[in-house]
Design brief:
transcription; DNA-binding; mainly alpha; elongated; Rna Polymerase Sigma Factor, Chain: A; RNA_pol_sigma70_r4_t2; 9 helices; sigma factor; single chain
């Protein structure tokens, strides 16, 4: 986190709306990527992103450690996204919408469209809880401690959920590989 962001947070805590607007601009893509990866629905992710910043603005004065601002925002976004996923049984969106919005930056290693679509489809097949833990650990490279704090669960639970999510992802990948090999016969 840059010193300029810390200064903006200090100003925003004192009621400077321009400073908060700059913080929104600096962190909007990060929050959008987080929400889109969890929800697999661009419109829903945009709503979660907007709600995240509304809630952050309303409770910014309660933030004690300014350097935790990105994790604090991610916590708000993750919880809102999980709530949205629970309200909605399955996101209904096209892969292209998600790919164009957040995938380029979130899945930077997957440059060609086929690989990005495969990754998105694999993530969409996971439960919201599995998707969330994979996104936080594997795509955002969060520590177990950070994930525990964001999700409000013990570290042991993070480890077991991550293990389960990885197994689920591996099983789906094997299934896709078998399906793909039959296509070429």
């Amino acid at each position: 986190m840059e010193e300029s962001d810390i200064q903006l947070i200090r100003r925003a805590k004192r009621g400077d709306t321009e400073a908060f607007t700059l913080l929104v601009r600096n962190y909007k893509n990060y929050i959008m990527q987080t929400a889109a990866a969890i929800l697999s629905d661009r419109m829903e992710a945009e709503d979660v992103t907007q709600e995240t910043f509304v809630r952050a603005y309303l409770s910014l004065k309660q933030l004690r450690k300014l350097e935790t601002f990105p994790s604090w925002l991610a916590t708000i976004a993750t919880r809102l996204a999980l709530d949205a996923a629970k309200r909605k049984s399955r996101a209904v969106s096209t892969v292209e919408d998600v790919a164009e919005s957040a995938v380029d930056e979130t899945y930077g290693g997957f440059r060609d469209v086929e690989n990005r679509i495969d990754v998105l489809n694999l993530l969409e097949d996971l439960t919201p809880e599995e998707r969330t833990i994979i996104v936080l650990r594997e795509l955002q490279d969060r520590s177990y401690q950070d994930i525990a704090q964001i999700l409000g669960i013990p570290i042991g639970t993070v480890r077991s959920r991550l293990h389960t999510a990885r197994q689920s992802l591996r099983a789906r990948m094997k299934h896709w590989e078998r399906d793909d090999s039959h296509d070429h016969l």
